[in-house]
Design goal:
By secondary structure, this protein is of the alpha/beta class. About 45% of the residues lie in helices and about 15% in strands. Among the domains are: about 90 residues; about 160 residues, no CATH class; about 70 residues, no CATH class; about 140 residues, Rossmann fold (3-Layer(aba) Sandwich). The chain has 28 helices and 26 strands. Helix 5 packs across helix 6 and helix 15 packs across helix 17. It is globular, with a radius of gyration of 34 Å. The two termini are about 50 Å apart. The structure holds adenosine-5'-triphosphate.
Amino acid sequence: MSNATDWGRERERLTLVEAKLAAKIAELDPQVDGLHEQAADIRKRFWEEVTVNTSTSEDYEETFFSIRQQEAVLAERERSQRLLLRQRNNLRRLQASPYFGRVDFREAGESGEEPVYIGVSSFADEDAMSFLVYDWRTPVASLYYDHVPGPASYDTPGGTVGGTMTLKRQYRIQDGELRSVFDASVTIGDELLQQVLGHGADNRMKSIVATIQREQNAVIRDDRSRMLIVQGAAGSGKTSAALQRAAYLLYKYRDRLKADQIVLFSPNPLFNGYVSTVLPELGEENMQQTTFQDYLDYWLGKSFRLEDPFDQIEYALTQTEAPDYGARMAGMAYKASEAYRLALDAYAARLGEEGLRFAGIRFMGRELISAEDMAARFYGFDRSIRLPNRVALLQEWLLRELAALERKERKAQWAQEKAQYLDRGQYAESYDELLQEYRRDEGIFMFAEQYVEADDAIHNRRERVEDVFDLADREEALLRKTIVKERFKPLRRSVKRLKFLDFAGMYGRLFESGSAYAELTNGTDAPAEWAEICRQTAEKLNRRELFYEDATPYLYLKELIEGVRTNTQVRHVFVDEGQDYSVFQYAYLRKLFPHARMTVLGDFGQAIFAQATELGGAESPLLRLYGEADTNVIRLARSYRSTREIAAFTRAMLAGGEEIVPFDRPGPKPLLVRTESGDARAKRIAADLAALTAEGFGSVAVVTKTAAEAEAARRALAACGREDARLIDKASPSYEKGIMVIPAYLAKGVEFDAVLIHDAGEEAYAQESERKLFYTACTRAMHRLTLYAAGAWSPFVRALDPALYETAAEPIGPRE
Ligand SMILES: Nc1ncnc2c1ncn2[C@@H]1O[C@H](COP(=O)(O)OP(=O)(O)OP(=O)(O)O)[C@@H](O)[C@H]1O
């Protein structure tokens, strides 16, 4: 900042804004409380205010309208209470730090310039005309993120506003005190960013609102593309930008977009908690968060035991010696491919002509409706009707058939016997139901009887003795009806759930042989390992289990046949760690959320699962998902998480890594420590942990390759007195501050002050397929990275320039 006068002015202004804030809050507080009481009061008196009188139709109408009116009053009060509450809370959030930025902007053609102060929420002066603080999401605030002093412009709904920015300033205000002021020139807030990034990691992600970078702002404010793909290096702020983007959309479209219309797909359940505080910190409600696995479990979990992606990756990492390993890995890759998706499309088309498998409906050991009958009926429908619609027609037919069969069944011997010997205890429920039904029917019957009697009396007819109903017979008939109905219930339910289609059988048919596969899928070539893939898949299906790589294709095929499920409410879908989803999963998400725009954030450099999809490259299938014209790809090359030294070390492991630009925050180089394995290693790690804690690092992760290694490491550390090292596995509810022992694949998306790679030896990370896992593990570190190995180092380390790291103990193993 230029001089002391400026500092003085800024302090004065801050004091002024704070005073106005305090005054406004003091004004709003009693109103909020008052409204709260009023609403509670109305709710309490709700029934007192309405006249409940239903004796005549006018009375009924009056009652109806009086209830409606009370409801409307209550709803209005609650709405204004919500608005006031929100306004008050926004102001309270401003209190500790009313703004973080300022731009002075002179609009073209105007003589004066106006200072625009930017904060997490807007705050207007008494006259409600001049803004003391602008919300960071307002159009004018984008000047702050997108431009440096000089010619500048911003977009508004009415068009672009051009002019000149004469000043850009940043503030650090804590607890209402002005701590520092920076005048920014080239990039936004390098100084401020330095300070922010220098802090320790938290077990929760933080908002980056004060220091959003220009390219991140493009991600946040893109509201034109149907599909926004963000390919960004590790630590480039993809997740941060995604959360800011959600907050931006909720602000910009606040009159029509609600938080529950945005869904975030997270890499694992732990991650949900990790990001859950950002939106509330920005004054917005949280969006819906889920994982793809949750979705699969919901739809397939009742029919199959599903493998999850973590078991799949454990297999990939640990079973390399298994005889079926190669085929399984080839299967994983193939089952995630576009080729397989097209094959399933072809298969579904064929099933429209022939081959749909049905499961006959059996009842008490008899076949009521056979699979052949169903097939005959199904293929008898007009073939031009779409497959799912024909399935619906068949379903209707089956329900009608069942109703007829049910009526017939009431006369069956077994039903008569059951009715006679009905054990009321055993059939308590059905008996109660029976009684209810009986009473209802009896009521109707009595009424009908009375009517007939009255009618006869009026018309002077004789009593019709022969029609008098035999109540005992009737009770028995009702009993039989109820018993049969009860027995048919599961049949009806399973027809409603389309259980008459043998999906497992149909999916299984694909895995009978290579030639069968080609025949069913319009000549698709299967991978070379198909025979073994068939064996593995069929074995799983027979046990009512599904590999992770089969779950989405299975669901995909199922929906081609029975029709797609859609959620038309959701408007935005965010997919984080998007490289870990298959093309299938994307095609599926697109169908599932037909009215949503999609934002995919990921890093192909961290693609650790077999089903990975390239995101931004020319060949990326994602470009075609909504068509290239509706797709925007943004690349984030600057990496903020790690120190310059750690980023230099990690980026050198990746082909094309030189494109990653580390943020210039210095720190010690990564340290390579050669130790013995077992106890000696645990002792050394325990000592290093103590040193890191002494240095003030609050979150430290010992990162392993597999779950078994993590468990062993935890035990060894506990034996060395570090019982506080907590094991994180896929069932852990949350990441916590402190010391964690965690497999790399569960550390995706999160970060730690210090990362200790438990075993960076060549046994652990040698295969090309493990490179990205190793890279992912190392890039979790913010300030310190230490690697341990007992024997030779992983080839990924050996290939690095020694200038990129320090070594403790002896020199590292032979170089390649
Ligand atoms: N503009 C920014 N201002 C301040 N901090 C930032 C900014 N951008 C990113 N960061 C910080 O950098 C770190 C990494 O961000 P984030 O986790 O969003 O990156 P990512 O791209 O999702 O990483 P990964 O792919 O490795 O999971 C976080 O600590 C985040 O707060």
